Amino acid sequence: MTGANFILQNDATRIAVDCGLLQGVADADAENAQKFPYDPGAIDFLFVTHAHMDHIGKAPKLVKDGFHGAIFSTPETRDLAELMLSDALSVMQTNARENGGDVSGLLYDQFDLSKTFSLWQTISYGQEKKLTDEISVLVMDAGHILGSAMYKFSCAVADKTTKIVFTGDSGNSPSPLLRDTDKITDADYLVMDSVYGDRNHEPKVERDEKFRRIILQTISAGGTTLMPAFSLERTQVILYELNNLIEAKKIPSVPVFLDAPLGQKVTEVYKKYENDFNSGTQNQIKSGDDIFNFPKLQISRSGADSRKIAGIPGPKIIIAGSGMSSGGRVLSHEIGVLPDPKNTLLLMGYQALGTLGRILQDKPRQVEIDGKKVKVRAGIEMISGYSSHKDLDHLVEMVSDTEKTLKRVFVVMGEPSASTFLVQRLREYLEVDAVYPERAKAYELN
Q1: With 431 labelled, which of 90, 151, 267, 377 sits at a CA distance of 20 to 30 A?
Q2: Is 340 buried (19+), middle (13-18) or exposed (0-12) by CB count in 10 A?
Q3: Which residues, in sequence order, are bridge partners of residue 320?
Q4: Which residues of the chain have a pLDDT value below 70?
Q5: What pairs with residue 228 in β-bridges?
Q6: Does CATH place domain 6-199+388-435 in 3.40.50.300?
Q7: What per-residue confidence (pLDDT) applies to 24?
Q8: Is residue 302 packed enough to be buried (19+ CB in 10 Å), middle (13-18) or exposed (0-12)?
Q9: H or E stretch including 283?
Q10: CATH topology of domain 204-382
Q11: Which residue from 192, 120, 101 is spatially nearest to 151, judged by alpha carbons?
Q12: Domains of the chain, residue spans
């Protein structure tokens, strides 16, 4: 499930890895507001794998509730986390005021946010840092989103060293933009993600052709292609792919609207760290290509700009947040787009249980959006291959790289069906000790 939060401890040191929001379930808000099942003040370090909200969303609450240790992440993740957490606070404040609530009851406030970043330090890929006399940590590239890291903790006692790797979310390599996930080859214990632990993505050639075909067919019909997109990573990948298709004249140049204020800010951070991109993308930039910009791309900077899009005639493409249709500007676009059979709603990745995106994925005849009943006559298409998560076969491959040293694999951060399927696959194919751990249960590492 989402809401990543793990504790690694010995007698002297307590390390938290990630501190994220639970998302996509009915009681998520109430659950996120609960006290932590441990004393935040007793945690010495917090390591953040990447800047998605299900990995960082409760970090300011951890600080609010007493954490005063050091927070570590890559520099890229720190920059992105500032954007993501500030935006989340703004949304929480707006929702509270609109619902007549008291903003003092929010998960955190601006003071907590400022204090969080006063504790935040950065550590780069390939850097190893000694935390205590017994524990050090190495930062590895997860290849998931910009700045995403895997942490390998080495714990030395007497003449024995135990290595525990937390993958965070491992990337769907090769990525259109980022470098491949670093190989793990010497882990004693592995705590790994499993969002796609029970299925594979489309082959990349098939994925790219499907993306082009859907857009081309919708343009030919004179319709709108609406893509709900996560502001972080998915928006940048979509812009990059559209840039390549339009420049290669594989699709006609039509108006493209980026209607995601947070996505615009995140894109600027991506431009800042282009050295993190894979060699092909870096060469493309060196040749003079602005990979996130192309003719007829229009940025909607205000609510008024957003509302004007519906009145613009002819075929067009809209990229809007949020990625699972759980809020944001995409909802108003869906109200206008879904009733028309000329249009296409293109879902570009995983849709969590309980979200409108997941409901739409099942192609219902009607949905309710902002209290309005909306007929669904538009085409609903799904492409999983642009997911930034590894799929089943690549998750198994990642474990196989270190199977000779493994004592146990903890399969986490997926729906129960996906996690348990991956556990069984690892046991059968690699004969490793894999487990789907119980929430809040402690496991002793030998």
Answers
A1: 151
A2: middle
A3: 228, 259
A4: 1, 24
A5: 320
A6: no
A7: 66
A8: exposed
A9: helix 279-286
A10: Rossmann fold (3.40.50)
A11: 192
A12: 6-199+388-435, 204-382
